[in-house]
C-alpha cells in the first residue's frame, strides 16, 4: 500500500522472478514444439527429411535450453544483468525453430501415400 504522497513499495526481486518464470515457460513451450517436430521421424517409413528436421529441432531445443540457463544465471545477480546478446540469440533461435516447423509442415503436405 502506498502512503499519501509517497512512492509505491519496490520489490526488485519480483521482476527478476517473473522474468525467470517467463523464460521457463518459453523453454517448456519450445520443448513441446521440438517434440512435435520430431514426431514424423518416428513413423515406420520416415523420410530422410523428417529425420533431419527432427535432429535440427532437437539441436535448436538444446540451444534454447542453454540460452535459458545462461539468462537464469544473469538474473540471479544483484542487480539482475540485462544480457542483450542472450535475448537476441534466443529470438533468432526461436525463429529458426519456427522455420524448421514450417519445413516439417510443408514436407508433410508434399508426401503422397
UniProtKB/TrEMBL annotation:
Membrane topology qualifier: Multi-pass membrane protein
Lineage: superkingdom: Bacteria
Keywords: Membrane, Transmembrane, Transmembrane helix
Pfam family, one: DUF202
Subcellular location, principal: membrane
GO cellular component terms, A-Z: endomembrane system
Location of this chain's protein in the cell: Endomembrane system
Record-annotated membrane-spanning stretches: 48-67, 87-106
Residues in DUF202 domain copies: 11-73
Keyword Membrane set for record: yes
Protein name: DUF202 domain-containing protein
Natural source organism: Mangrovihabitans endophyticus
Amino acid at each position: 500500500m502506498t502512503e499519501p504522497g509517497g512512492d509505491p513499495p519496490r520489490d526488485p526481486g519480483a521482476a527478476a522472478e517473473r522474468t525467470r518464470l517467463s523464460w521457463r515457460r518459453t523453454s517448456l513451450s519450445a520443448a513441446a514444439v521440438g517434440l512435435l517436430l520430431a514426431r514424423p521421424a518416428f513413423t515406420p517409413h520416415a523420410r530422410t527429411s523428417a529425420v533431419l528436421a527432427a535432429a535440427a529441432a532437437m539441436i535448436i531445443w538444446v540451444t534454447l535450453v542453454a540460452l535459458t540457463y545462461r539468462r537464469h544465471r544473469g538474473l540471479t545477480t544483484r542487480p539482475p544483468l540485462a544480457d542483450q546478446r542472450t535475448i537476441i540469440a534466443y529470438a533468432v533461435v526461436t525463429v529458426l525453430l519456427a522455420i524448421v516447423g514450417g519445413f516439417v509442415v510443408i514436407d508433410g503436405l508434399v508426401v503422397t501415400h
